[in-house]
Design brief:
The structure holds two protein chains of two kinds. By secondary structure, chain A is mostly helical. In chain A, helix 7 packs across helix 10 and helix 12 packs parallel to helix 13. The relative contact order of chain A is 0.15. In chain B, helix 8 runs parallel beside helix 9. The chains are: A mainly alpha, B mainly alpha. Chains A and B meet through helix 1, helix 7, helix 8, helix 10 and helix 12 of A and helix 4, helix 5, helix 8, helix 9 and helix 10 of B.
Chain lengths: ~350, ~270
């Protein structure tokens, strides 16, 4: 099978997955006993049957479930995710505003995890059972055992309140105004507008939450890279390269590490979902105006259109990230395509 | 009783001691806590750690040490219960899928794939928000979010066991489908699944604390680590309010993970290099 056919077949599965995701999101958010009427109208209005009936009719809550679902999918296909019951804005617009902040955070955290985890994993694999290996093992275990919300608070306490190195929570200093929205990625928008100081301020706000968020995936990537390195270092071609008299560093990096990176690609895709989960919690700690804060607000107010929007977007991002990972894997390792 | 390589690693033994200590704390909290977890000492509210209150007091003048100790009584059982329920449900669904095969297998596994596409905390958050905050609902949320990975694991094990000679032999001598499934297949996949579940208890405690931190756990007066940390958010300067419950989570979960790591090494020599 050639690469195009492989990618094509994987891409064809996407719409099916997405449809399944919409169905599942719809079922979860409707199969629950909670009543959005009480959560959104307040006690006084909820006691008035006329207001309740009008509310139910307005949001289509008085129709049978299958019909509600079909209407939902039909609108979704036209880019309409409905109106948020609590913000009174189009869910698609809300998400378009909040998703970039989350992607910015998750992407920065992923970059940090790779920049730290891959070299650390290589080093731990090469210097197996030495002090550096033990330290990397210990710090990975601590990374995956750390409550991310607590780490965030401690980081704010130490670097903001005590040392004053980091700015306070939030995406920008209050004295600055957001750059004109083009992509909704604050750093990129600021650069596009030529506002260098705003971009620098946004970056400095990004550092602490991204570091906190990366704690978990650094641990995962380091462990994976180390294990994969150990596998590869035992291979014949590495021994051959050494026997040929190639310098040690060259064998480590060119022959071993390049191949050891392959399984790590998969983990990167999988841990992207974990990053999105972590982002939800990190965002609430750092008052980050992203999808996580939005998800939390809409889940606690039982804002079904918003909850479904978040679920669909997040699951789609995850599925899409995994598609990219599979494609990257197939590009890197031709054997995969044959399977 | 314990696998010998586990006992030989000093780190794993140390971690085992920490886990055991937390279990003792959970069982004996009323005996060892200096004061009841809800007792308020209003004159000493927000007191820093000192001789009267070793770990300080919170905004309502409650003793942080006592509340941290009592917190173990919630987190440990919840972590175990959530994993046990998810393992039970996942094993049931996954092994039925693997044993039945065909369209049923295909349908069930595509459904678990879908479930796995949702980041667990977001899924758990939606579920526990919809069911209402509380310990029981948080456990249900973790169960619903986690069963698919156990289902996938159990299915793989059943598929492997199904082809074994002893299963064929049982079938050949006329054992019923149910008997083959329950007496020959299920018993042989139980121990790897139990091990996997044990490894996940720390993670479950962490997830529960996260939900609780988001306000989806027990009501605030209950001494629970995640909500204690949340209650310290507005008191950054009074660092002890959220620092100590966080250290409690970290030490317990870290110790569980170290034990789990050692367990994995000891039981599966192939993985020892990892």
């Amino acid at each position: 099978m050639n690469l195009a056919a492989y990618v094509g077949r994987r891409a064809l599965l996407m719409p099916v997955m997405l449809l399944g995701i919409t169905l599942l999101t719809f079922l979860i958010s409707h199969a629950v006993p909670a009543d959005p009427v009480a959560a959104n109208l307040g006690e006084q209005s909820a006691a008035n049957p006329e207001i309740v009936a009008a509310f139910r009719h307005q949001w289509g809550l008085d129709r049978p479930l299958p019909q509600q679902y079909l209407i939902y999918v039909w609108r979704l296909a036209h880019g309409d995710m409905g109106m948020s019951i609590s913000t009174h804005q189009a869910v698609a617009a809300d998400l378009g505003q909040d998703l970039p902040a989350t992607i910015e955070l998750a992407f920065a955290a992923m970059l940090i995890s790779l920049a730290v985890g891959v070299p650390l994993g290589i080093l731990a694999g090469v210097r197996r059972d030495t002090a550096i290996d033990q330290i990397s093992r210990g710090s990975s275990l601590i990374g995956v055992s750390m409550p991310v919300f607590w780490l965030g608070l401690v980081a704010l306490l130490v670097f903001y309140a005590w040392l004053g190195w980091a700015p306070s929570a939030g995406q920008l200093s209050p004295r600055l105004s957001r750059p004109p929205a083009v992509t909704n990625f604050v750093v990129i928008d600021a650069l596009l507008a030529g506002e260098g100081d705003v971009a620098r301020d946004a970056l400095s706000h990004l550092v602490l939450p991204a570091l906190v968020l990366s704690a978990y995936s650094i641990g995962v990537i380091t462990r994976m890279m180390r294990g994969s390195m150990l596998d590869v270092l035992g291979e014949d071609y590495v021994r051959t390269a050494r026997a040929k008299g190639l310098p040690g560093l060259r064998v480590t990096l060119r022959h071993a590490a390049r191949n050891a990176l392959l399984p790590v690609i998969t983990i990167v895709g999988l841990s992207f979902g974990g990053l999105l989960s972590g982002a939800v919690i990190t965002e609430t700690v750092f008052a980050w105006p992203g999808l996580g804060s939005y998800a939390f607000r809409s889940a606690t107010s039982l804002d079904f259109p918003a909850i479904m929007g978040v679920g669909i977007v997040v699951a789609s991002v995850y599925v899409f990230a995994n598609l990219l990972v599979d494609v990257a894997y197939a590009v890197a390792d031709p054997r995969i395509r044959m399977g | 009783m314990l696998p010998r390589p586990l006992v030989r690693s000093p780190l794993a033994v140390g971690a085992l001691v920490v886990v055991a200590a937390w279990f003792v704390v959970a069982a004996a909290a009323p005996l060892i806590a200096p004061s009841p977890p809800l007792a308020q000492d209003i004159a000493n509210r927000l007191a820093p750690p000192g001789p009267a209150h070793w770990l300080g007091t919170d905004p309502l003048g409650r003793d942080v040490l006592s509340r941290v100790l009592y917190g173990a009584r919630i987190s440990i059982p919840v972590g175990i219960a959530a994993v046990a329920l998810a393992v039970l449900l996942g094993t049931l669904i996954g092994s039925v899928a693997g044993y039945a095969g065909g369209a049923a297998d295909e349908g069930i596994m595509r459904f678990t794939d879908l479930m796995l596409a949702f980041p667990t905390v977001i899924l758990a958050m939606i579920i526990s928000a919809a069911l209402g905050a509380g310990i029981r609902n948080a456990v249900i949320a973790i169960m619903v979010a986690w069963w698919p990975s156990y289902a996938r694991f159990a299915r793989g094990l059943v598929l492997a066991a199904r082809g074994r000679e002893y299963v064929e032999a049982a079938r050949a001598v006329g054992a019923s489908t149910f008997r083959v499934f329950s007496r020959h297949i299920l018993v042989n996949i139980v121990s790897p699944i139990l091990i996997l579940g044990t490894l996940d208890v720390g993670h479950a405690i962490l997830t529960f604390a996260s939900l609780s931190f988001l306000g989806l756990g027990p009501p605030p007066q209950i001494p629970e680590w995640g909500s204690m940390i949340a209650s310290g958010r507005d008191y950054l300067v009074q660092w002890w309010i959220s620092t100590f419950p966080g250290l409690a989570i970290l030490t317990l979960v870290l110790a569980l993970n170290v034990v789990g790591d050692g367990l994995r090494d000891a039981l599966d020599p192939r993985l020892r290099r990892l």
